[in-house]
Amino acid sequence: MLEQNEKNNPLVSIIIPTYNYAQYLQVAIESCVKQSYKNLEIIVVDDGSTDNTKEITQRFVNKIVYVYQKNMGVSGARNTGLELAKGDFITFLDADDYLTEDSIERRLNLLLERKDIYFVISTTYSKNIFDNTLTAKNKLEEDMISDKLHEALLLRYIPFQISAVLMRSQHAKQFIFPLQIANGEDIAYFTKIFFKTKGYFLAKPTAVTCSHPDSLRHKIEEIKKQDTALIDIIFDDPYYGKALNYLRKDFTAHRCFEFFRRFYNSGDKVLARKYYVKAIATKPSKIFKIDYVIKFLRTYL
After folding, report:
1. Cβ neighbours, 10 Å, residue 276
2. What is the domain extent for residue 260?
3. Type and span of the H or E element at 272
4. Residues 31, 91: contact at Cβ < 8 Å?
5. Residue 86: which of 42, 133, 32, 136 has the closest Cα?
């Protein structure tokens, strides 16, 4: 346990953006309130909800900061949270996910012990809402410290969920989430957080991500609207100069394969084929992914 004194008791801000997710929000907030580390600022940014979100938040009076704003999208809500956050450290939590009880303490300990790291990213559990089972899939079984985690993020060498990252506030507030997209906006933001800084990868999960019909349907609609806009937003950003160009083709192929899988699973065979073809055109060597070839052929059946 952390020593609860002024030196080792920094304020940690947890930012929860929410939009019409009242049915999940209480669990998310409770997971923050029940943290083993107690010096927390829990900021709930209600992005124009029309359900009973406000009623849920009123159950936590004096335990959270509640802010209502007109609907601006998840990036706008997160950016509002960034502006309001007073903590020495900042993390985000999606309203339909929740934290493990030691989530903040475990990650904060690492940041307090290692003054040379700017953030800690952990793995997460995935929750099946139909039977409430938790699974943790992670190719990396050991912790590591690296200044190349931006590369690991873009090439998907490490698992990534926004709720798994705890950052030093001064670093987190340098950047904002892009407002022009709503799918992959977290990758755009955290590529900047990870770029040219040393971070700690924690193999132990510190959050639980929940997939449900609402989130899956929303993601599909956003993909249809914005297509591959995220690729240009990241790689054409003058912030990087040309430093990320060597990753562009691999990231594009990964992104298109992800879209192929989502549309294949949703039954949209036409769009699934579109993204498969684009992935192979970008990186022809990926044609040897046999499981994808089989699924691609099935889109013609």
Report:
1. 25
2. 216-298
3. helix 269-282
4. no
5. 42
The span from the CA of 38 to the CA of 43, in Å, is: 14
Measured CA to CA, the distance from residue 104 to residue 147 in angstroms comes to 22
Residues 240 and 183 in one domain: no
Cα distance between residue 146 and residue 199, in whole Å: 6
What CATH number is given to the structural domain containing 158?
3.90.550.10
Residue 217: band (very low, low, confident or very high) from pLDDT cuts 50, 70, 90: low
Amino acid identity of residue 42, one-letter, is I
Is the predicted pLDDT of residue 1 greater than 50, yes or no?
Answer: no
How far is Cα 189 from Cα 212, in angstroms, rounded to an integer? 24
- Kindly report the backbone phi and psi dihedral angles of residue 75, in degrees, each rounded to the nearest multiple of 5, phi listed first: -65, -45
Residue 95 sits in the same domain as residue 130? yes
Among the three residues 186, 211, 236, which one is the final residue of a domain in this structure?
A: 211
How far is residue 9's CA from residue 21's CA, in Å, rounded to a whole number? Answer: 32
- What is the Cα 121 distance to its own chain's centre? 10
The overall average pLDDT reported for the chain is 93
Structure tokens at 242: 């040309």
Residue 2 falls inside a structural domain? no
Task: Render pLDDT for 248-285 as a digit per residue (tens, 0 to 9).
Answer: 999 999 999 999 999 999 999 999 999 999 999 999 99
What 3-state DSSP class applies to 8? coil
Report, in this order, helix, strand and coil percent for the chain, each rounded to 5: 45, 15, 35
How confident is the model over 119-168, as pLDDT tens digits?
999 999 988 766 677 788 666 779 999 999 999 999 999 999 999 999 99
